[in-house]
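Practice problem: histidine kinase
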Amino acid sequence: MMIGEQAQANARITLRNLIAARWVLIALVSASVLFAALAGDRLPVGLLPRSEHPIALVATVVVWTVLNLVSPLALARGRASEPLAGAHLLADALALTLLLALSGGPANPFTILYFLPITLATQVSPRWTWALAGVCVACFAGLFLLTPVEHEPEPAAPTTTAASEDPHAHHHMPADHAGGPAPTAAKASDRPHGEHFEGHQLGMWVAFGLVGVLITVFVHRTALALAHQRDELARLRQTTLEDRHLTALGTLAAGAAHELGTPLGTIKLLVDELPHLPAPESEGALDTIREQLARCKLIVSRMASPELRVSALGHARAQPWPLTKLVTELEGVDAGVPLRVEIDPDLESQSCGQPFSALSQVLRELLNNAADATRRAGEGDRAVVIRFDVRDAALIIDVIDRGVGMDGDELAAAFSPFHTTRPENQGMGLGLYLARAHLRQLGGTIEIDSELGRGTRVRVELPLVDRGAAA
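Answer key — C-alpha cells:
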C-alpha cells in the first residue's frame, strides 16, 4: 500500500470513529440537559452543572448534530483525507469547549472528554496528535477565562452578646455548652461546599467510566481496522511477489529471444544461400549452421539455469574464478571489428565471485553494440577498446567505441525496453535493458557517456564479491 493510500485509509478510520463518538456525545449532552431539567434540585449538587444559557447550549448541540449528519458524505464520496479528519477533530474540541463553558466551565466533571479527540487524533498522524493535545490544553485553560471561578463569601464573625461582656459570665455556663454556637455555625457554612464536592466526585466517576468505555471501544475498532490493513498488505505483498516472478520470467524470455535472434538470422541467411554455393563453400556453411545451432541450444539450456534468472541473480553463489578467464572469453568473440583489450597489471592476480555466465553475457552484449555502432559510422577499421581495472574491491570495465554515438534523447532512452537505434528488424532494443537488470541484481551499476558523431563509452562497475551471497 502506498503512503498516500495509507494516509487516506487512516483518515477513513478516524472519520468513522469520530462520527460514532459524536453521536454518543450528542446523546450524552442531550440526555444530561433533559435529565437536569426534569430532576431539578433533586440531583446532587455538582453532578450535572446547570447552564444559565440553555438556548446557546441547545444551539451548539444542533450545529454539532448537523455537522455529524454531513460528515458521512465525505466517506461516501471517497474524500476522506488527513487534513479533513484533523479539521473535524479541531471542530469537536471547540464545540466541546463551548458546551463546557456553558455548563460549569472548569468545574464541570466532564472536562475529561477532552481526551476523546486526542485519542482519535492518534489514528491520523503524530503531527495532528500533538496539535490536538495543544488545542485541548489551550481550550481547557480558556474555560477559566470564559467562566471565572466564584468564591464563596467568608462566614461573618460571631456576634458579641451581653453575657459575653461579663468577665465572670462564663463561670456560670455549663461546661457542655461552652463555645457551643461556634461549631454549629461552622457546620452550616461547610455543608453546601461538602455537598457540591460530593456531587462533583460522583460526576467525575461517571465521566471517567464513560470516557474509559469510549476509548476502549474506539481503540478496539482501530486495532481491528489495522489488522484488516495488515492482512490486505500481506495479500498485496504476495501479489507483488508473484508479479515479480512473472516479470522475471518475461525478462528471461525476452533475453533468450534477443540472444537467439543473431544465430537464427545467420542460419536463415546461410540456408537461403546454400543451394547456390559450390560444394567446398557448402561444407563451410553447414559447419557454421551447426555452430549456430549449438549456440541456440546453449542459450535455451541457460534459461533453466538459476544463475541467469534475474530474480535469483542477487542470491547466486558462484565459485571464484580468475578475471583473466573473462578477458580470454571476450578476446575470442568475433565482433566483426578490431578489438583491443587493456588490462590493469593487478588484474591477473584477482578473482571474482560473481556468476561468470551472467557477466560474460552482459559484456558480449555491450561489445556487439559497440561493434555495430562502429560499423554504422563507416569506421570498421577502428578498434573497440575494452579496458579492465580493479579499484577498491570492485571490477571496472569500460567499453569504448568511435561509432555513431547518441544524442541527448537517445541517451535518455538507452535503457528503455524495446528502444533501439538500429534499423528496423535488426534489433529488439532489449540489450541494455537486460544488462542493467542483471547488473542491478549483482550489485553493480552501468553508465553511458555518448556524443553524437564522436562515439560512446559504457562503464560497468561491479563488486568482485557477491555481497548478497556473502551476507
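Discussion: Residues 3-149+193-240 form one domain. Students who identified this feature from the C-alpha cells alone can consider the problem solved.
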